[in-house]
Specification:
The chain is an alpha+beta fold. The chain has one domain. The protein is about 15% helix and about 20% strand. The longest helix is centred in the first third of the chain and has 15 residues, at about 15-30. The protein is globular and about 45 Å long.
C-alpha cells in the first residue's frame, strides 16, 4: 500500500522530519508490539534557539490531556472500520531552516514543526523493513502551523466541504480542510473513502481531552453541522499563532 504523502512541497526541507515520520509508521504498524504500543518520537536535543522558538508557538499538550486547539474525529468507527489508534505529536521547531513556514499577524515567521492530533482507523500489513498506511487517518493541525499558504506554491481551494474551503491532493487520497483555526488533513486508501470521511468529520472543541470518548451519535449530530469559515489570515499563512484557551470554543477557535 502506498505510504502517506509527506509534506514535500513546503518551502522548508523536511529530510529529518521525513525520517521521523517513516519510523513513526514502522512503530505504529510494524513490529511485534504494534497493536499495543503507540509511537512516541524520540526526544530531540533541545537547542536554546528551538526552545525560544517553541515559546512563541502554542504549547505542546500530551496524549490524554486537553488540547489547546480544536481537533476532528470520525468517532469510534467509520464505514465499517474501527478506530485503531490515536497519536498526539508535538515536536520542537526544526531550526535547520528557520523562517520557512507560517507567519504571525505581525509578519514574523516561525520555523516548522510537526504539531497534530491524529485519529487512525483500521490497520495494515507492514513489510519486514518498512511501514504502511492505514485505511483512514484524520490529522488536525493548528491553522497557524499548517495551512494553504505554507506550501512553496500557495494552494488554491478546489473543493468545499460543508461550506469550508479544501484542497485535494494525490488524486483525492488526501484532502486538507481549512476551518476556523484548524487544518484537518484526511488521508484515505482511495478517493471515494477520503471524500466521504472528509464530509463526516466532527469537531471537538479546544479543552477536550485527546483522544476523546465521543459516541457515534454525537459524531453523527456534529457531522451534520456546517464547518466554520477559516479564521482571518489562515489561508494566506498570516494567522497569529497565539495559544487558544479552552474557553475559546467559537468559530474562531
Amino acid at each position: 500500500m502506498k505510504r502517506r504523502r509527506l509534506w514535500t512541497e513546503l518551502a522548508v526541507p523536511l529530510t529529518v522530519l521525513g525520517v521521523v515520520f517513516t519510523f513513526g509508521y514502522l512503530a505504529l504498524f510494524g513490529g511485534d508490539d504494534a497493536e499495543t504500543k503507540a509511537f512516541v518520537p524520540p526526544e530531540p536535543k533541545a537547542s536554546a534557539a528551538a526552545k525560544a522558538e517553541a515559546a512563541r508557538m502554542p504549547a505542546c499538550t500530551g496524549e490524554g490531556k486537553p488540547t489547546n486547539f480544536a481537533f476532528y474525529t470520525l468517532g469510534p468507527r467509520f464505514a465499517g472500520v474501527e478506530q485503531s489508534k490515536s497519536l498526539r505529536r508535538c515536536d520542537l521547531p526544526d531550526m535547520s531552516s528557520p523562517g520557512s513556514s507560517m507567519s504571525t499577524a505581525g509578519g514574523k515567521r516561525h520555523a516548522f514543526r510537526a504539531n497534530y492530533a491524529s485519529v487512525i482507523y483500521g490497520d495494515c500489513e507492514a513489510g519486514d523493513d518498512e511501514g504502511c498506511a492505514p485505511p483512514l487517518e484524520i490529522q488536525t493541525w493548528p491553522a497557524c502551523e499548517r495551512n494553504a499558504g505554507t506550501y512553496e506554491k500557495a494552494k488554491r481551494p478546489n473543493l468545499r466541504i460543508r461550506g469550508a474551503p479544501a484542497v485535494v491532493f494525490d488524486g483525492g487520497t488526501q484532502i486538507e480542510i481549512y476551518t476556523a483555526r484548524a487544518t484537518v488533513v484526511v488521508f484515505g486508501a482511495d478517493s471515494a473513502l477520503t471524500k466521504r470521511a472528509a464530509r463526516a468529520v466532527a469537531r471537538q472543541d479546544p479543552g477536550t481531552r485527546f483522544p476523546s470518548k465521543v459516541t457515534a451519535a454525537g459524531v453523527s449530530a456534529a457531522s451534520r453541522q456546517p464547518l466554520a469559515r477559516p479564521a482571518r489570515g489562515a489561508m494566506a499563512g498570516r494567522l497569529d499563532c497565539r495559544p487558544v484557551s479552552a474557553s475559546t470554543s467559537g468559530a474562531g477557535a
